[in-house]
Amino acid sequence: MITEPPQIPAIVLVRPQMGENIGAAARAMLNFGLDHMRIVAPRDGWPNPAAVAMASGAGRVLDTALVSPDLPVALADASFVFATTARDRDMTKPVYTPEAAMQLAAEKIADGQRVAVLFGPERAGLENDDIARANAIISVPVNPQFASLNLAQCVLLMGYEWMRQQGEQAPVVHEMAGTDWAKHSEIEHLARHYEERMEEAGFFFPVHKSQSMKTNLRNMWSRLPLTRADVQMLHGTLRQMVRWKERG
Questions:
Q1: Which residue range(s) make up the domain with 219?
Q2: Does 106 share its domain with 140?
Q3: What is the total count of domains within the chain?
Q4: Among 113, 117, 128, 153, which lies 20 to 30 A Cα-Cα from 86?
């Protein structure tokens, strides 16, 4: 999807509902040096005149925005994904403050990884299936009696914390031993491979629990810091187990 080395996190708006909020998010991004926006299945289509009008000087963020039909496509080249949410989720994931999240993002980007930050629809936020594809959660410490932030406000907070990290965070270099971090598309393919084989083996039982079991499995994959070599080994392991079973 992108060929140049990543230097900033990708801001991913998942199923945004109002063009005005997309435009306001673009302004918030550019305030803090972020200009890479990705838009997933916008409710009112794209391009959106209301977004352009609200962007007011940040139109170049919208001009270069990447529009995707679904979240897996939008995250295909991502190595690490944060999901922003104000609600407790029944998932085992690390939860970061905005400051800690952007510090980690700066470290990973300095290491050559593509980082993405997900923001959900204005009315209800991200769905559990969206969050299951993320590696970690960002939770903003707000008034528990009124925890609602609009889309542009949430983007603004992340942008502010990102800007604070610039010049303060020393690059971190990992020895990759001849491999690279696995991209989201490769993790997605691995997850499908295991789901299909486990389905054939009757693992997802009883039927009424199968979807939650699959979501938990994907959540597990997204938590693992897998390299491409790891992914290839896991594919090969499963194929060999299937061949062994068929020979038996």
A1: 184-247
A2: yes
A3: 2
A4: 113
